[in-house]
Design brief:
By secondary structure, the chain is of the alpha+beta class. It has 16 helices and 15 strands. The radius of gyration is 22 Å and the shape is globular.
């Protein structure tokens, strides 16, 4: 959604022309795939992190424009809410000491941004959902002053035709309504990109779907929303409901939500792009001047702007991405599962776990997705979001007997997935010191049964036990979280409580 979008209304002809251009883009993508025009293997990865802004009191601060002005770097951009920022890391080749390099770059960049924000009594907080956010913070007036966000809000509301209903039943039950999509801005995530060749795309996407639940189990960091303790990772149900263009009648008919896990394993990237065009009406029918088929006929590489824009308004947890760099088209798997934080070390450990694990699973002679129904992968994802590190996941049994077994997530990670991740990092050419350090963080989380969500909940409950009321306990938890986040030690080492 980083495209520059100019405000303005849409008429019927705009939508008809956009639909035509979308289908031309799909045809162009199909031709590029058939003609094998895509970039050669490069083992490239990328990283984006969405951030919150909060004051010294732990409460959200609606000052992203002012902070960005002070940061003055193209690495930092706006996000949906005025209390959000996003930082983008330049692509890196997977190999060597890349994870230590990422840690150094992220620590320097976030430290600089935090110091700039401090000049206006704000600070950077890397957390899945800021615990102190309230319903009063996620109103249309706090939408970032960027045309594409205003248009997106307008179009989603127009399609839905009524307020959004948020109804999440977890440890506590939250039910409320929202008159804008700004509630979605409460969700701040990490997006992990992996550039792949077309032939490798389906295996790596299927592998990413399989491991999404394990990622959430070890990395959950969003237990609170609007003052309620909900799921250990409350972003997925919130994001699904806050972007839902379907009124109840269409939900009852089984119409797909724009935020979804998917419904089947795939054999090509094209299938996912085609599903997005077939199932979802355009939200931003803005046509580019490029005629993709004419560009192809002239021997060029089309940017497929309509398809890229449309694809950015369908919120798959593992999204297919088309891009052009240095005159060559490429495909990426964008993994959108993880929450932000708690620390840079934790974020990089989560990345190492993911990149290693999908490499091994994609290379297996008998891949896990051939032994597990897609519905089980989705059920695992739901269980991990609800219960985090305490989840039980269904996973194929070893040996010839086959079938699925229900396994505690921590045992699955320790006994099977961490060795797979280590083998995958070896296959990428990661230095053993990097491999062992960052996978060791995941191992210790599992051994101690601690992640960002458990720390937040335990500290919040300790604050309540000390006599603080709910808002004060959430604010104190946020302040302590922020303090420890900036110290940088991984979350499994954090002491529980306010000191």
């Amino acid at each position: 959604m980083g495209e520059k979008v100019v405000a303005g209304g849409f008429d019927l002809s705009d939508r008809q022309r956009y639909r035509r251009k979308l289908h031309e883009c799909l045809e162009g993508l199909e031709r590029l795939l058939a003609e094998k025009r895509f970039d050669r293997p490069k083992n490239m990865m990328g990283l984006e992190i969405e951030l919150n802004l909060a004051g010294s009191d732990g409460l959200p601060r609606m000052v992203n424009a002012q902070v960005l002005e002070r940061i003055a770097s193209s690495d930092f951009q706006t996000e949906l809410g005025m209390f959000n920022l996003e930082v983008n890391v330049l692509p890196h080749r997977l190999g060597g000491r890349v994870f230590d390099q990422l840690t150094e770059e992220l620590s320097a960049g976030l430290g600089y941004a935090h110091r700039q924000a401090a000049e206006i009594d704000a600070g950077v907080v890397m957390v899945g959902i800021l615990p102190t956010l309230t319903q009063d913070d996620v109103v249309a007036a706090n939408l970032s002053a960027v045309d594409r966000y205003s248009l997106l809000n307008e179009q989603i509301l127009m399609l839905r035709g009524e307020d959004f209903t948020l109804d999440i039943d977890g440890v506590e039950h939250l039910t409320c309504t929202s008159g804008s999509i700004v509630a979605e801005a409460a969700c701040t995530s990490v997006q992990l990109h992996l550039q792949v060749t077309p032939s490798r795309f389906p295996d790596l996407w299927n592998a990413a779907q399989c491991v999404a639940a394990a990622q959430i189990a070890v990395g959950a960091n969003s237990p609170f929303l609007f003052g309620r303790e909900l799921w250990r990772e409350s972003r997925p149900p919130l994001f699904t409901q806050a972007t839902d263009t379907r009124p109840p009648e269409l939900q009852a008919q089984g119409v797909r939500p724009r935020t979804w896990f998917g419904e089947r394993w795939v054999d090509s990237a094209y299938e996912l792009f085609a599903e997005n065009v077939r199932f979802f009406p355009a939200l931003l029918p803005i046509c580019d001047e490029e005629e993709p088929l004419a560009v192809l006929a002239d021997g060029g590489i089309p940017s497929l702007q309509e398809l890229v824009l449309h694809n950015g308004t369908v919120y798959r947890w593992n999204r297919p991405v088309y891009g052009v760099a240095d005159g060559a088209p490429h495909l990426r798997v964008e993994n959108r599962v993880l929450p932000a934080g708690p620390t840079v070390a934790d974020v990089v450990a989560n990345a190492a776990f993911y990149y290693g694990l999908v490499r091994t699973l994609a290379d297996e002679a008998r891949p896990v997705w051939t032994r597990m129904p897609f519905a089980e992968a989705e059920a695992n994802f739901d269980a991990a979001c609800r219960y985090g590190i305490d989840a039980r996941l269904r996973w194929p049994r070893k040996g010839r007997a086959g079938g699925l077994a229900s396994v505690p997530a921590v045992r699955l990670v320790l006994d099977e997935l961490l060795p797979m991740a280590a083998a995958g990092l070896d296959a990428w050419g990661i230095e053993p010191a990097d491999r062992d350090h960052y996978l060791g963080i995941i191992e210790e989380r599992c051994r101690r049964r601690v992640n960002g969500a458990t720390w937040q909940v335990d500290t919040y409950r300790a604050a309540l036990d000390s006599g603080l009321d709910r808002p004060a306990a959430l604010a104190a938890t946020t302040r302590r979280y922020t303090e420890l986040m900036h110290k940088g030690d991984p979350v499994h080492t954090w002491p529980t409580g306010l000191r």
